[in-house]
Design goal:
Largest sheet: 6 strands, antiparallel
Number of helices: 16
CATH class of one domain: Mainly Alpha
Order of helices and strands: HEEHEEHEEHHHHHHHHHHEHEEHEH
CATH topology of one domain: Multidrug efflux transporter AcrB transmembrane fold
Strand order of the largest sheet: 6-5-8-9-7-10
CATH superfamily of one domain: Multidrug efflux transporter AcrB transmembrane domain
Number of strands: 10
Helix content: 40-55%
Radius of gyration: 35 Å
Shape: elongated
Structural class: alpha+beta
Length: 508
């Protein structure tokens, strides 16, 4: 049937006017194209399929129903099994996801009173909750990091006055870093906040060096705070500048990575490098001023020093053990050199053997299911498959809602294809180990392999950064480069899918 339709519904060239060999004086050349494409259902019904020995003929209308269909594949959408109308909104370049989400929801609330009775608004897929949860988690981490840094400084310095000086440096440097981010056009996002989390511990290093050296000079030389600060800064100013330059040299080159890698890490690297430079400036300007004003010489043990006497004793024992270890290392340098070389080899081996990836998978609060039925399957069969998928996911306690589409997938429009967006419950209501998006996807793929018999359905996680592919992993296209034909190409596709299913490194 397909061969007959292709042969009898083809555009052909009937000839050429003024072609070679042309008569003398010919001025024009034109190709004559005959109207051979069929234009009506009746003409398609009359397509000849076979001529019988007795002279009878079998036409397409004898074996098939020929009718005029729609210009495009119809798309059916459902939410939790009920008919629904889906509206997708994509962010414009440079748009803020949180602001757009808030504006869209506000507008829909204004329009909701005008909706027909029984129509409700649902949000099966949105990126804003994941962004908000991620930012909240990073902000919480920053607060915890600041608290831990202050606690560690208090335990080691054992002085409220000495602890206060590095603690003041943290908000000052963070404020200056936000100014640098604004100058570069950066926003407060996951990448910049992650850079600040890593920088929290480094921000106070320079200020701690200043405080400890001033206290040492006060104790050893018997100088007052102002004189001790002046002498101390003359000793360590160049070292502080060197520390800042070295740390900046580590992070700044990341801003010059090419391609998408550079776009991802540029904000991270410049944010943390800016924080490093500001911490040096604060250590050279603000911290010495605070030392001269806040620190006081003490000749008796303070209450904190008495409370942390046990800590000092343990730290002293640890220091003496470290000194003995260094002495043993110096006396047996060859042994430790071999150990160091072994560590280098082990690092190289692990670097090669450990799996790599562009971005780590994230639990974004949803999963996506794509299903594909055999070529030629009707939309009704696709809807039947949707019902099977709906029954499975709606039985799962972790699922909050399910939006399904028949007639459309990431590969385009087709009656035999579809998508499902699985909206999971909030992270606080799910166990991070057994009810994470990754665990749910793995269980779903195992279950769908047995439930969807006449097609293929697989769940996957979208990448953490939108527009960088439709799923984690890679894509490939199988092409017939040797004119082997459709059947041979489908056979090769089956072999490829079978090998992929047997591979332990491929999830779907």
């Amino acid at each position: 049937v397909s061969a007959a339709i292709e042969a009898q519904n083809a555009q052909v060239t009937a000839g050429q006017l003024g072609g070679l060999p042309a008569v003398e004086g010919q001025q024009l050349n034109a190709t004559v194209t005959a109207q051979t494409l069929l234009t009506s259902t009746e003409e398609f019904r009359n397509i000849l399929l076979k001529s019988m020995p007795d002279g009878s003929r079998v036409r397409l209308g004898d074996v098939a129903r020929v009718e005029l269909g729609g210009g495009a594949v119809q798309i059916d959408t459902f939410y939790d099994g009920e008919p629904a109308a889906g509206l997708g909104i994509n962010l414009a370049p440079g748009a803020n996801s949180l602001a757009v989400t808030e504006a869209v929801k506000a507008r829909l609330q204004e329009l909701e009173p005008y909706f027909p009775e029984g129509v409700e608004i649902r949000y099966p897929y949105q990126t804003a909750p994941f962004v908000e949860a991620s930012i909240d988690a990073v902000v919480t981490t920053i607060i915890e990091a600041i608290a831990l840094v202050v606690l560690v400084m208090l335990v080691f310095l054992q002085s409220w006055r000495a602890t206060l000086i590095p603690a003041i440096a943290i908000p000052v440097v963070l404020l200056g870093t936000f100014a640098i981010m604004a100058a570069f056009g950066f926003s407060i996002n996951m990448l910049t906040l992650f850079g600040l989390v890593l920088a929290i511990g480094l921000l106070v290093d320079d200020a701690i060096v200043v405080v400890e050296n001033v206290e040492r000079v006060m104790h050893e030389d018997g100088l007052g705070p102002m004189e001790a600060t002046r002498k101390s800064m003359g000793q360590i100013a160049s070292a502080l500048i060197g520390i800042g330059v070295v740390l900046s040299a580590v992070f700044i080159p990341m801003a010059f990575f090419p391609g998408s890698t550079g776009a991802i890490y540029r904000q991270f690297s410049l944010s943390i490098a800016g924080a490093m430079v500001l911490s040096v400036l604060v250590a050279l300007i603000l911290s010495p001023m605070l030392c001269g004003r806040i620190l006081k010489p003490t000749h008796e043990r303070t209450l904190l020093q008495k409370l942390f006497g046990w800590f000092e004793a343990g730290l002293g024992r640890l220091t003496r053990g470290y000194v003995r270890l260094v002495g043993h290392t110096a006396r047996h340098a060859w042994l430790y050199t071999l150990a160091f070389l072994g560590i280098v080899v082990l690092v190289a081996v692990l670097f090669v053997r450990l799996p790599g990836g562009f971005l780590p998978a994230e639990d974004q609060g949803f999963a996506v299911v794509q299903y594909q039925l055999p070529a030629g399957a009707t939309q009704q069969r696709t809807i039947d498959t949707i019902e099977v998928i709906e029954d499975y996911f709606m039985e799962q306690d972790e699922v909050q809602g399910l939006f399904t589409i028949a007639g459309f997938s990431f590969a385009g429009r087709a009656q035999n294809a579809g998508l499902a967006f699985v909206n999971l419950k909030p992270w606080s209501e799910r166990d991070p180990e057994t009810q994470s998006a990754g665990a749910i996807i793995q269980r779903a793929n195992r279950a769908l392999a047995g439930l969807v018999r006449d097609g293929r359905a697989f769940a996957f996680n979208l990448p953490p950064i939108p527009e960088l592919g439709q799923a984690l992993g890679f894509e490939l296209r199988l092409q017939d480069r040797g004119a082997i034909g459709h059947e041979a190409l489908m056979a090769a596709q089956g072999q490829l899918l079978q090998l992929a299913a047997e591979s332990p490194v491929l999830a779907s």
